[in-house]
Write a structure and sequence with these properties.
Layout lengths: L1 H9 L6 H33 L2 H12 L1 H12 L4 H18 L3 H19 L6 H41 L1 H17 L4 H8 L3 H21 L1 H15 L5 H6 L5 H17 L19 H11 L3 H7 L8 H28 L12
Amino acid sequence: MDKMQTFLQRKNIVISARRYGIDALGAMAQGLFCSLLIGTIIQTLGQQLGLPFLTDVGTFAKAMSAPAMAIAIGYALQAPPLVLFSLAAVGQAANAMGGAGGPLAVLFIAIIAAELGKAASKETKVDILVTPSATILSGVALAYLIAPPIGALADSFGTLINRTTMLQPFWMGIAVSVLVGIALTLPISSAAICHTLGLVGLAGGAAVAGCCAQMVGFAVMSFRENRWGGLVSQGLGTSMLQMPNIVKNPRIWIPPTLASAITGPIATCLFKLEMNGAPINSGMGTCGFCGQIGVWTGWLAPSEMAVSKVGAAAVSPTAMHWAGLFLVCFILPAALSVIFCKLLRKIGWIKEGDLTLN
C-alpha cells in the first residue's frame, strides 16, 4: 500500500472528488467554451451576415469540441505533454462512441486515460512511443467499452428533464432554475452539466433563468459593498466569487435562490423562454452574455441537440421574445434579489460586510 501511495504521489495522480468533480469538470467547460460555444457564435454571425468565411470558422471550431474537452481535462489533471496531446484522439473516440451523451463519456474516459498515461509516462527509455500508446489505446478501448452506456444514460436523463419540463413547466421550471443556479455558484461547472445533459428548450430556458438570478442577483444586492467592480465581476463573470462569503454566512444565498425559484416558472410558463442554442449556453447565465447569445442563436438557427430533443425550429423573435429575455435575465433577478436582501438585512440575517468580496 505504501509503495502504491508513493508511486501515485510521484506520478501526481490525486484521486479526489475535487480533482475530478471540480477541476476536471471546470476545465471541460472551458474546452467547450473555446470550441463549441465560440464556434456557434461565430457560425451564427457568419450565417446572419452572409459571410461564408465566418461560417466555416465556426464549423471548424465546433468540430473540435471533443478533443478540446479531453485536452482541457488533461490540463486540469496536470498531465505531461505526451499524455496531454494524446488525449485529443481519446476525446474524439469517446464523444463519437457516446452519441448524444458523448460529453459525459469524454469526462470519465479522458480522466481515466490521462491518469493511466501519467502512470506510464517516463517509465521507459522509449517514452515517445510508450506514453502516447498507453494513453490512446486505453482511452479508445474504454470508449468502445463504456462510452455507449454512459452516453445513453446521460442522454436519457437529459431527455427526461427536457420532456418533464415541457409537461410540468411550473414545477420543473422551479426545480431546474434553482438547481442549475446553485450549481453555477458552487465551484463546479453548471455549463458542463447542462451540455452533458443536453438541456435545451424550456428546460434550457429555466436553467438560463436560474444562472442569471444568481449572477445578477449577487451583483446587484452586493453593490453597496462592492460597487462597480463587483457588479461587473459577478454580473459578467461569475457569482462563484461569493462562495467564501456563503461559507461564512449561508443566508446570503437566500435572495438570489428565491429569485431563481420565481423567474424559473415565469420563463417556462409565461414567456415560454426556450434556449435552443448550444446546450452549454444554458449553464452560462450572464457570463459574457453567453446565456442570452444562446437564446438568440437558438431563435435564428436551433442547434442539432435542440432539434433532436425538443423538435426546435427557427423563429423570428417578436417583442414578446425580447421582453421575456430581458425581464427573466436582468430586470426581475435584480429587483427580486434586492427586495429579498433588504428584508434579510432588516431582520439581521445579512449584515454589513457579509457580501464584500476580498
